[in-house]
């Protein structure tokens, strides 16, 4: 009997979307979705660095106090002046510092994203950490977008919200929250943002046909959030794209659509 080959996938695809999932939806170039997902996660990690938190355990004042306590003739009798206690405190601080550095290194290499199985020629990357989610990282990810070296990826859709097609209200509320986070700095500077937007939809492997139940609430949401904005049919600044794959709807927001090669990866690595 021939032994069945063991297939090792990294990242391993998950079968279903978790509730309130955000991330990036990629189209693939007729390749294995696992290879495309691996390349997509590598691209995200390279474009968006992990947050580095610095935890300085010992301060300059502590060091000065330590030198002052052990200066001159005060340390002739260490048991009386408590210098042994200071040494123990220094050791504890050193151990605490090494432990914090180890925790930071472990967090830096922890899993930040995962591949969720969708349909053929598509790969959805669910961002598990906040700094990787599109509402926080899209502008960083778009830096030098046209120069990104890829081999298996075709197009990118930043997914701000997901929901079942039967639970549109949940997806709309999440989409609204993410848009507020993404435009937070702009809203603080300018009360009413003025831009042109266009709404598109795409259906794959689904029998969903009630488009008005999705398009009308999304338009009402945008008019409420950005009353000075304008809905156009040609040359928009941003595109809101509703991608329906099977029984799930992906609320995608393509920021500065024309400035970033229409979110198509032009460079193909050898």
Question: Explain this structure to me?
Answer:
The longest helix is centred in the middle third of the chain and has 26 residues, at 83-108. α6 packs parallel to α8 (212-225). The protein is an alpha+beta fold and 270 residues long. The radius of gyration is 26 Å and the shape is globular. An 8-stranded mixed sheet has the order 2-3-1-4-8-7-5-6. It has a domain at 23-49 and 113-263: 2-Layer Sandwich (VC0802-like). The model is unreliable at 4-11 and 51-75 (pLDDT under 50). The protein is built from 8 helices and 8 strands; from the N terminus they run βααααββαβααβαβββ. The two termini are 39 Å apart. A hairpin with a 5-residue loop joins β2 and β3 (122-127).
Assigned CATH architecture of the domain at 23-49 and 113-263 = 2-Layer Sandwich
CATH fold field value of the domain at 23-49 and 113-263: VC0802-like
Order of helices and strands: EHHHHEEHEHHEHEEE
Helix content: 25-40%
Count every beta strand, where a strand is a DSSP E run of 2 or more residues. Answer: 8
What is the CATH class name of the domain at 23-49 and 113-263? Alpha Beta
Spatial strand order of the main sheet: 2-3-1-4-8-7-5-6
- How far apart are the termini? 39 Å
Runs in which pLDDT lies below 50 for 5 or more consecutive residues are: 4-11, 51-75
- Per DSSP, the total helix count is 8
Shape: globular
* Classification by helices and strands: alpha+beta
- Biggest sheet details: 8 strands, mixed
Radius of gyration: 26 Å
Averaged pLDDT? 79
Q: Tell me the β content.
A: 15-25%
């Amino acid at each position: 009997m021939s032994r069945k080959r063991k297939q090792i996938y990294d990242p391993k695809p998950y079968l279903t979307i978790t509730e309130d999932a955000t991330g990036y939806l990629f189209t693939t170039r007729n390749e294995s979705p696992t290879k495309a997902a691996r390349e997509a996660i590598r691209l995200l990690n390279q474009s968006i660095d992990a947050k580095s938190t610095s935890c300085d355990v010992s301060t300059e004042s502590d060091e000065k106090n330590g030198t002052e306590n052990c200066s001159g003739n005060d340390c002739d009798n260490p048991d009386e002046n408590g210098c042994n206690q200071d040494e123990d405190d220094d050791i504890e601080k050193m151990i605490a510092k090494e432990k914090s550095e180890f925790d930071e290194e472990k967090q830096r290499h922890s899993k930040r994203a995962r591949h969720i199985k969708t349909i053929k020629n598509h790969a959805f990357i669910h961002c598990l950490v906040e700094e990787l989610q599109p509402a926080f990282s899209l502008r960083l990810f778009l830096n030098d977008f046209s120069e990104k070296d890829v081999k298996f990826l075709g197009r990118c859709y930043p997914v701000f919200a997901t929901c079942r097609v039967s639970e549109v209200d949940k997806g709309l509320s999440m989409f609204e929250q993410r848009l507020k986070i993404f435009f937070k700095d702009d809203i603080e500077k300018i009360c009413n943002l003025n831009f042109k937007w266009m709404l598109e939809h795409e259906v794959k492997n689904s029998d969903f046909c009630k488009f008005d139940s999705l398009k009308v609430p999304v338009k009402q949401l945008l008019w409420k959030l950005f009353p000075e904005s304008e809905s156009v049919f040609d040359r928009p600044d941003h595109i809101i794209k509703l991608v329906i794959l099977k029984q799930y709807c992906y609320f995608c927001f393509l920021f500065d659509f024309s400035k970033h090669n229409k979110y198509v990866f032009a460079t193909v690595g050898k």
